[in-house]
Amino acid sequence: MDRISRQGPKIARKILEQIVDNGVEVHIVNISTKLTFGWENDPTKSIIVDIELGRALKESEYKSERIGSAWKAKRANAASKLVTRNVPLWLEVKDGQIVEKQEVVAAVREAFRLASLGLGCKSIISRLNGSLPGGLSWLLRTFQSRAVLGELQTFKRVGNKRVPDGEPVADYYPQIVSRQEWQEAREQVERKCKNGRYRSGDRSSNVAKNLFSGLICDVTNQPVRSMTYMDVRGCRYLNSQFSPSDPRKPNRIRYDLFEENLLDYLLQMDWVSVTGKSESAELKAMSAELDGLLSEIDKTDRLIQIKTAAMEDPELDPDTIKVLASQIAKAETKFAALSNKRIELSDKINAVRVKAGALYNVETLKTLIAQHDPESNDVRLQLRNEIRKRFQRIELDFSFRIAPESKLVFVNFVFVDGSRLDAGCAFSLSVLRKNRY
Length: 437
Prior knowledge:
Blueprint: H1 2-5, H2 9-21, E1 26-28, E2 33-35, H3 43-76, E3 91-94, E4 97-100, H4 102-116, H5 121-128, H6 136-144, E5 155-158, E6 161-164, H7 179-191, E7 193-194, E8 197-198, E9 216-218, E10 225-232, E11 235-240, E12 252-254, H8 255-268, H9 271-275, H10 281-311, H11 318-358, H12 363-370, H13 377-390, E13 391-397, E14 408-415, E15 420-428, H14 429-433
């Protein structure tokens, strides 16, 4: 009865009717009532059941309010007291203190490092060979968890949804990964999501055969075509995406020659001119939105304080107190929603700034290019990751409009901050196609 009553008396009554109509006798023990087929036609039973459903709903709401108040009090003292003994699997509680399991923490940190390089969850679990405390679904949840940042996020249920209950409590757990590592791992995991679902079957995620996967496209004419990587009998190519409905001829180049020439260009690129670009329009727009959001949060907070202070007036009548309480409840709901939105927007701004900041620090990229070893998977994974940090798109133009007689393929670069470098470099088509294996 307790569970059913949470749906509200009207819906709960229909549920009871459906249960009984399907041949199940319902016994309500605390009021000594048995419901059988046709009970809703008995006025006495009908009234008794309605009263009991209403009582059960109020009791449920009262319990929920008490539990919520207790959790609110615990959250307020979270900085100095243990809220719950349930902690992530890489931590444990000893003598009232949360401490790290060193071996498990090391494995989780390595999992984040590998995820930031683009490895899929299955590849990470295989490489760590049982040192992680959970399986595929646990690892995926861990990549989304803020507990690795040291934050405690409690939740509450609104209807059938589980939503955050207030802002995260910072520095509650020991922080085991940096915010940048967490963000990079999340970005790589989100890249593998298709239609909201994680694609765990990427069997080659641990081998960076194509350093520019997802970045290269053919812009010779419209519409733009992506360029797909193909490995045919040991011969590696980049081909313009083919469609039976598209009459255009695909363009094809040798991947290994393109990689060699492009990496050499990136090593010699004048990054000073690239990093001189101003703050992106996207970042400016999000910063303006955050300013407006902070202003709205401040207004709502002040409104809550004013209404709360007004309720302390001993001369207020019950109706006015009820109206003020309702207004405070609405304002607190709005404040919680705005606070959650602020956290999400701040994370997005930090992610954009991290991406843009990658343009200002290219030493890691240059070092990896200089020590590039085609046989070292880890170096290639790191190199692919550094390239993705700096480029949104790499465009190839096969039209030869700029230099028809030389048959040059021109390369345009679109950087993560939205800036462009058109015709940044050019490669001879004959060179990119020569000497098949």
